[in-house]
């Protein structure tokens, strides 16, 4: 009885529940405590994280890591090509552009040669035109008469201007070939043809492709009367530059000196075509035509030159000689009178001879 009462009292103490009491705790701690539950949750989360990391590593190993692209270097700035350093000029004048037509000489005569006009052409871009300077006027022959011209006498001539000595090249970089070339041209301008030919032979030996050197040498030799040597020099000019107008003009003068008039006329005609702004080829073409007895053609050539170069004394002088040759005194007087007015003292020797001719015709010049 006492045992039954004790049991009832215990049942009342636990709230009257008929459920069995909780299990006895497991040795090592009760899982029912809050701290133990949080630790278990943390372990579960850690395990899940580890599994996730392992999965990611496994997938990366299968697909491979993406290639590492090195950074592109900055674009390199273009380096401009170096400008060619200017070559010292034998004169202060500017050189002609690549591809420009060569400078052509002023009026020349069949009794003399065309002046040296070195240009940057076919063989050397270092040679430039000399500065303009005082002109040397050659002594023209006497005014031809009909008899002397018919007999093959002196042809009418024009005064020839030769270039002044080129100034020495400025700057530190002097070219010995150019200096020698300038010395040869200066000697030629002074009338020292033999000295000029020696200097210019050295130039052509050092620079065999220099067209201007061969042209100047040919002029020096022609003035010395060494026609065969001059022929060789001018032939080198045309072999290097077939369209070099001063060379064509000078070899035409050489052909006239050799008596090969038709060949000279052909060279003058070609030089005139290549040099529309030059008077010398046209005047010398008319002289060659007159020497060949084609006075009508010579007159037409000079009249055409007069339209291109109106009032030029050289045209008027040669026109007067043509009219003198064919016996047209009225037109000869007209041309000679116009020549005296246009020349105005610039050609004293020629003017004296023209005045003498006019006085012989009974005219007062």
Largest sheet: none
Provide the residue-averaged pLDDT. Answer: 71
Helix content: 40-55%
The secondary structure category is: mainly alpha
Please identify, by name, the CATH architecture of the domain at 146-360: Alpha Horseshoe
Which of globular, elongated, flat, extended, rod-shaped describes the shape? rod-shaped
Q: What percentage of amino acids are in beta strands? A: under 5%
CATH H-level homologous superfamily name of the domain at 146-360: Tetratricopeptide repeat domain
Instruction: Give the end-to-end Cα distance, rounded to a whole number of Å.
Output: 188 Å
What is the name of the CATH class of the domain at 146-360?
A: Mainly Alpha
Number of strands: 0
Question: Please, could you describe this protein's structure?
Answer:
This protein has 14 helices and no strands. With 365 residues, the chain is an all-alpha fold. It is rod-shaped, with a radius of gyration of 53 Å. The termini are far apart.
């Amino acid at each position: 009885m006492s045992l039954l009462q004790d049991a009832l009292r215990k049942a009342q103490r636990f709230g009257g529940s008929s459920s069995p009491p909780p299990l006895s705790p497991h040795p090592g701690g009760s899982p029912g405590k809050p701290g133990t539950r949080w630790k278990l949750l943390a372990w579960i989360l850690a395990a899940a994280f580890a599994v996730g990391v392992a999965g990611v590593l496994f997938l990366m190993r299968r697909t491979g890591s993406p290639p590492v692209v090195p950074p592109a270097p900055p674009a390199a700035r273009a380096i401009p090509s170096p400008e060619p350093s200017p070559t010292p000029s034998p004169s202060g004048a500017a050189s002609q552009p690549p591809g420009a037509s060569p400078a052509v000489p002023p009026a020349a005569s069949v009794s003399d040669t065309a002046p040296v006009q070195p240009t940057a052409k076919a063989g050397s871009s270092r040679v430039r035109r000399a500065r303009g300077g005082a002109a040397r006027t050659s002594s023209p022959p006497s005014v031809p008469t009909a008899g002397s011209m018919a007999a093959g006498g002196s042809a009418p001539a024009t005064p020839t201007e030769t270039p002044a000595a080129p100034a020495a090249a400025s700057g530190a970089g002097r070219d010995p070939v150019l200096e020698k070339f300038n010395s040869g041209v200066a000697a030629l301008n002074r009338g020292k043809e033999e000295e000029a030919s020696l200097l210019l032979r050295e130039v052509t030996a050092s620079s065999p492709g220099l067209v201007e050197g061969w042209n100047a040498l040919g002029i020096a030799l022609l003035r010395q009367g060494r026609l065969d040597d001059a022929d060789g020099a001018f032939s080198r000019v045309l072999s290097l530059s077939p369209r070099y107008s001063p060379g064509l003009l000078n070899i035409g003068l050489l052909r006239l000196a050799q008596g090969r008039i038709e060949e000279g006329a052909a060279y003058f005609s070609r030089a005139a075509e290549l040099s529309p702004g030059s008077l010398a080829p046209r005047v010398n073409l008319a002289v060659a035509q007159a020497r060949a007895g084609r006075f009508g053609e010579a007159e037409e050539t000079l009249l055409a030159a007069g339209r291109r170069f109106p009032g030029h004394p050289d045209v008027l002088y040669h026109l007067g000689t043509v009219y003198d040759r064919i016996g047209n005194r009225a037109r000869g007087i007209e041309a000679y009178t116009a020549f005296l007015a246009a020349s105005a003292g610039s050609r004293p020797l020629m003017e004296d001879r023209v005045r003498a001719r006019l006085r012989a015709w009974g005219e007062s010049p």
